[in-house]
Design brief:
Blueprint: H1 11-22, H2 40-43, H3 69-77
Length: 80
């Protein structure tokens, strides 16, 4: 027995494909599964700034929360 995995771009197309596959006598089983949603960050629209960015306004944002590069790396690698 062979297995085929097909990714479809819309639910309307999925329904069409499922109905089509049901017509074939050599298709033994059809399963429909939802895939995990991708990160919302990738799907978010880009919003451009209305004014030029003032990089100097970020100066000193960490003055009350001192960090070492080791702390930053340790926290970054523990995202699992």
């Amino acid at each position: 027995m062979e297995r085929l995995i097909v990714e479809v771009n819309s639910s309307k197309n999925i329904e069409f494909l499922l109905e089509l596959l049901k017509k074939f006598d050599f298709v033994n089983r059809i399963e429909k599964e939802k895939t995990k949603k991708k990160s919302r960050k990738k799907n978010m629209p880009i919003e451009w700034a209305k004014n030029d960015a003032d990089i100097m306004s970020l100066a000193g944002i960490w003055k009350n929360k001192p960090r070492t590069i080791e702390e930053i790396r340790e926290k970054a690698w523990k995202r699992n």
